[in-house]
Design a protein that fits this description.
Length: 288
């Protein structure tokens, strides 16, 4: 059950499941709902060989009836929302034919929210990384699906790295946008600006504020027996493209895994970032 552990400060949070057995998925959904997750998401998009061998992930695009049975079983088991993340198709499928049928099946099973990665997955011949880059994106098809299913909450995913792109999708009728790796590797550029740009919220959380807000979380994690690097390794991109980014990454990468190291390392790394920024500003002023 430790895999389901999370902190209340992370809410709203979703649990993504992989599988193709309706009974087992229903049990897993119940465990997730009981653990406090507010959404149970079924993965019908991952193209890796290991996932395919278990008959789940993107290969399930070939089995829409089975996916619908899985969704229905999970919906019958939990009160929280059951959602799906999928591709537009796989291999030699014609997305314009298979995607509407797929969506109709899961909508009929009670799914009200779907995230569509707007490209095919090639189950043979491409690595998972290549499957995120090589097959061409078809955003127009995702917009077309919104026209077919106006009551279905549709989010688009794939190749989106800026909030300006996200705003364009929202302005053109889609209900949501999923930004994955860009938000992870450049969180300050995406997440910090999302509230004012997307949601119209005036208050902006700065990187400095976000780091200080994380300190109690780090302390609680370490008291529970965890190590600092289990958190900070996901914070390495906080200063991406900014002065001091290299020092930030180096200090956290080199020292956060050492026994006994705590949040004071993060504060020291933040101080180094500020020092670097001040030195750079002073150097630029002297040149001017």
């Amino acid at each position: 059950m430790h895999l389901l552990d999370h902190d209340v400060s992370e809410h709203p949070v979703a649990l993504q499941l992989g599988g193709s057995d309706p009974v087992e998925l229903a049990k897993a959904a119940r465990l997730g709902a009981d653990a406090g997750y507010q959404e149970i998401n079924l993965n019908v998009g991952c193209p890796s060989d290991r996932v395919q061998s278990g008959t789940f992930g993107a290969v399930l695009m070939k089995h829409p009836k089975l996916v619908a049975e899985c969704v229905a079983a999970m919906r019958a088991e939990v009160d929280v929302e059951v959602t799906v993340k999928c591709r537009i198709g796989v291999d030699d499928q014609n997305p314009e034919e298979v995607l509407p049928e797929f969506l109709a099946r899961i909508v009929g099973a009670g799914c009200e929210r779907v995230t569509i990665h707007a490209r095919k997955a090639w189950l043979k011949g491409l690595s998972p990384k290549e499957n995120r880059q090589v097959p061409p994106l078809d955003y127009a098809l995702v917009h077309q699906m919104k026209g077919y299913f106006p009551n279905l909450h549709i989010s688009v995913n794939g190749g989106i790295s800026t909030l300006e792109q996200a705003s364009e999708f929202l302005d053109n009728g889609l209900d949501g946008v999923m930004i994955g790796r860009a938000a992870y590797h450049q969180p300050a550029d995406v997440l910090s600006a999302a509230d004012p740009l997307i949601f119209g919220i005036a208050d902006v959380t700065t990187v400095d504020q976000a780091i200080h807000a994380m300190l109690p979380y780090m302390e609680a994690h370490m008291i529970a027996g965890g190590r600092l690097h289990q958190i900070t390794r996901h914070m390495l991109g906080l200063f991406a493209g900014r002065p001091g980014a290299r020092a930030w990454r180096r200090m956290l990468s080199d020292d956060a895994n050492k026994p006994g190291v705590g949040p004071e390392l993060v504060l020291a790394a933040l101080a180094k970032v500020k020092q670097t920024a001040q030195e750079l500003e002073a150097a630029q002023a002297s040149v001017n």
